[in-house]
Amino acid sequence: MRLQLQSSKINKVRFHFIMVACLLVSLCVGMLPARAAESGEAQAAGQAVQDVYQQLQAGKRLRPESTYVTPEQPTVYLTFDDGPSKLTNQVLDILDKEDVKATFFVLGEQAKSHPNELKRIVKDGHAIGNHTYNHVYKELYSDFQTFWMQISRTEDMIDDIVGIRPQLVRAPGGTATNFDANYYYLMEQAGYIVHDWNVDSGDSKRANVPVNEIWQTVKASPLEHEINILFHDGTGHDSSVEVLPKVISYYKQLGYAFAPLTDKVKPKQFSITKPKWSRTMSLKHFQDLLGQTQAYATAHPSAAEIARREAEQLLAQKAKAEAEEKAIAKQKAEAEAARQAALPLQVHVQGGGTFSIESSHYQLQANRIELPLRYLIEKMGGSVEWQPDTRSAVAHYGIYDMDYDLTNRSIHLFTLGRPVASYYLADMTMQNSQIIVPLRKTIDLLGGRVTDAVMDANSREVSLALRPFFYWKENNSLVPTTLFAMGY
């Protein structure tokens, strides 16, 4: 007996163990599709990144979709690199006097040393661009990570001083031989716009370039509809300050306007050439940098991106408000329709009285009143007999009888028991075991007519003129009368 009990307990334990195992297997199997889907999405995303990486490694430029605005008037964009410095205020004085706005690509270490000049640039309405932190080529172009760190550091510095995070960037020395496809792509993924130039004033060819040499270089430069001209306002560029008024006057005489760079100005960018810097980028390093730049773009959206999001939010709010207005209007319309549908129908009989038909006993279809035959006839003082064998109803009203044949959709009219007329394809339907007929046509069959009808938002009224008929009174005398003359 003890062995049997032990065996029974063991079997129960085994049974419970098997059930738990089956349940766990079932849960795991149920999770497989979701995990497979997630794994498939991750693989697809990973493959897309690899495809981009391979194209960039092959030197292919992958440009983002952007929309730019071409100014109607030929325009010069004066740009100043390497500042701010003690010369910057002189440049700003000239720009203020000439009523010209420009763009200053500032270095982080210079902004730190000259915060007041940076503040004045912003105060005077000029644009700020990022020119890295220390301008040391070997550091900036040995690896994108260093370039990216200097851009971020300078941006934080500018933000601390004037509360601006510039979207515009100029690479020290320009992008030619310095940038490759990776640099461009990662900067654009972070939301930056990289600007080179199409007119170089030559003020940085060497130290102390003479004023006349700068002037001749500018004057010899080709004229385009949009000119991005490179100057410097860093230490040692006194000649640039001195030649500036003459350059501004020259372009004004040619009919050019002046404007600062914005995200709507198509950037002048050099073509990608073989970098003069020895560097490589593994797929893993590229993936890490791509994650950093995309995360930055999400955390620090550009002014254009903020405007786009605000526009989308406004559109969403407008759509929501319109939807709410439509819903309210629909509710009001439904409530009004329900109120109107609940209006009773007042029937006025010429020479007689008035009776009321409740809303539940009639329906308004395109301004046509329909109601049950029996209800109408009995309301008027007549009667209706239903004959199930022939699926017909006979309505008795005074000297008139109307035979409604549902099967053949016909009406046969009798006066004093004699056939008078027949109507085929008659207007009648069967609803909820009731014959539904139109009021006007039914009154017409009885020799009467509808003389007036009011169907508006606040009333339902019909006026009838009924033909007199002879009613056989108990004293066997025939008296011409109408329904309501008899008190119905």
Question: How is this structure best described in words?
Answer:
The structure is a single chain. The chain has 488 residues and is of the alpha/beta class. It folds into 3 domains: 75-300, Glycoside hydrolase/deacetylase (TIM Barrel, Alpha-Beta Barrel), CATH 3.20.20.370; 302-341; 345-486, Copper amine oxidase-like, N-terminal domain (Copper Amine Oxidase, Chain A, domain 1), CATH 3.30.457.10. The chain has 13 helices and 23 strands. The chain has helices spanning 2-57, 88-98, 108-113, 115-123, 137-140, 144-162, 181-189, 211-220, 238-253, 283-299, 303-341, 373-379, 439-445; strands at residues 75-81, 103-106, 127-130, 168-169, 193-194, 199-200, 226-232, 257-258, 345-349, 354-357, 363-365, 368-372, 383-387, 392-397, 400-405, 410-415, 418-424, 429-431, 434-438, 449-455, 460-465, 469-472, 478-481. The strands form 6 sheets. Strands 1, 2, 3, 6, 7 and 8 form a 6-stranded parallel beta sheet that branches. Helix 8 links the parallel strand 6 and strand 7. Helix 7 (181-189) packs parallel to helix 10 (283-299) and helix 8 runs parallel beside helix 9 (238-253). The longest helix has 56 residues, at 2-57. The radius of gyration is 46 Å and the shape is elongated. It starts with a helix and ends in a 7-residue tail after the last strand. Keywords: Coiled coil, Signal. Pfam families: Cu_amine_oxidN1, Polysacc_deac_1. Residues 1-36 form the signal peptide. Residues 74-259 form the NodB homology domain. GO terms for molecular function: hydrolase activity, acting on carbon-nitrogen (but not peptide) bonds.
